[in-house]
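$ run holo --ligand "zinc ion" --emit tokens
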Amino acid sequence: MRKPTRDYMKIVNAYLNMNMPFQVSIIGFVQYYDTIYPILKLENCIKGRKFDITMQTGVHGDEAIGVRVVMNFLKDFKTKWLNYYNFTIFPCVNPYGYSFNVRKNGNKQIISRFEFWNNKNIDVPELQILGKHYPERPDIFIDVHGDTGKSKWYMYERRPINKESIAKLSLKENKKIAPFIQNATIYREICEDGVIVNPEHDKSIDDGMEFLGVPYVMVLEIPIKMDARLQIEGGVKILNSILKNHLKIMLESKFNLFKKKEEKVNG
Ligand SMILES: [Zn+2]
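-- output --
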């Protein structure tokens, strides 16, 4: 059998030993050939904040940059977010793919399928585990990917059409360090200001999260054809921007609602 390209246990150990305000747990194991891979979940130690956010990465094992970006986001974690968010983070959902630098799992299955809620059809071991641990309806779901063919950033965003785009705001404010694809057709879909808005229903996990009523579902595509240091720096910045802009939009809409009520009372 060929040797793995990367040491997944390094990731596991790094998380188990990292100093951060998250509880790390092993939520299950997958086994391919003679190797057993634990799957990790991170959650806030203290719960009960305003918004729930679910983040995952490593769906496609050949896009290891996502795993590195999320790890750096957590290494340099801004504790102010704990005042507003409950995090559930799956830092590497396809350990076999990560280890061998292949897109699929050890059964040659795609992890990004939405059958996880349709229990009858779960035959993907990673999804059997994740399906039990995905929060029911987070306020945001973020999936961090990479695109080997791109040198500029872009995102997919599923959201109610009357809501402001968090993805566009977040890319725009980081464009110096993370230039994005302005206007183009990416895999048959139209990308405007770096964002493919409400992409087609492709039965991915992201599509499924939208189906389940998650108001903001985002896929960040890290351009792998650019300087590796900038991939990480840009990725961490964009993730922080997403949180900031989401919070801003949520607090503003609450404030407007409050103002409207007040106007009604006064008028
Ligand atoms: Zn991907």
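-- notes --
The beta strands are 22-32, 35-44, 51-57, 85-90, 140-147, 154-158, 183-186, 189-192, 195-197, 216-223.
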